[in-house]
Amino acid sequence: MSQRETTQQAWLGRFVRVSDYITAHLEEDLDLDRLAEVACLSPYHFHRCWHAFTGETLAQMVTRLRLHFAANALIKDDDPVETVARAAGYGSAAAFTRAFSRAFGRSPAVYRTEGRLDPPITLSPPKEGNAAMHDVRIEEVEPVTLAAIRHVGPYLEVEKPFNQVFAWAMGAGQMGPETRVIGIYHDDPGAVPEEDLRSDVGISVEPGTPVKEPIHLVDVPGGRHAILRFKGAYAELLGAYNWFFGTWLPQSGEEPGDAPCVEYYLTNPREVAPADNITEIHMPLKGCQ
Fold first, then answer.
1. pLDDT digits 0-9 by tens, 193-210
2. Could you report the per-residue pLDDT of 125-165, keeping only the tens digit for each?
3. How many CB atoms lie within 10 A of CB 18?
4. CA atoms within 13 A of residue 6's CA, in its CB half-sphere
5. 3.20.80.10, 2.170.150.40, 3.30.9.10, 1.10.3720.10: which CATH number matches 135-284?
6. CA separation, residue 146 to residues 15, 159, 172, 203 (Å)
């Protein structure tokens, strides 16, 4: 078995452990930090790795598994649909029936009558060739200090806080040819509601630069980073992230560090077409393989 195949198997093993844990605790509230611990991954990156590698969010998986076991109960047992619904975590038979019908194409009652079960659930990595390739390099990067504004809400709405930082920087004489435009994205949009997503967006400044609220200084650690260079519209970055975490990372032999990804914006969206925007995604790595 090649090194690449061995690495992929190791990553698959992590997610099989998580799948087994979820299956054993379906009737409980499943904590993301606990699942990250089971996978031996940083909570910052666990859900993104999971989503990119398996093709579904944890919420989708939990729903799928609960409905799978509910389907089995409908076939094997004579419990009323209301009882099966409660065991599957639904507050009413009506909500359960809607979810079950969407997933299985028939109501619980019809499904029980027909006595049909779908094939067993499987967990497998995505097939090669399903996603576009991107340029990735590994570098030692220097730490950076940002003058930033915290944004809470959809990531695609960060232009407003960016503009606030730019206005402050021009007034304070902080914009220059070496200034870098940077965003730190703390949450995985596949795991956190859009209205709760946290980011810090701003520009590079010298450490100790005086700022006033709502601008604050943020220290971005240096060290080993995997850097993906993406050309395209910002709205398409999610696909690059999925490839980065779901294809490149499992095959690379690397481990993500315990810090969020950072985006460096190398072009001005006011000066180039959306398709020509260039963004670098910096993924922190552990110090050794």
1. 989 999 999 999 999 999
2. 555 544 467 899 999 999 999 999 999 998 878 888 998 89
3. 25
4. 5
5. 3.20.80.10
6. 35, 16, 14, 5
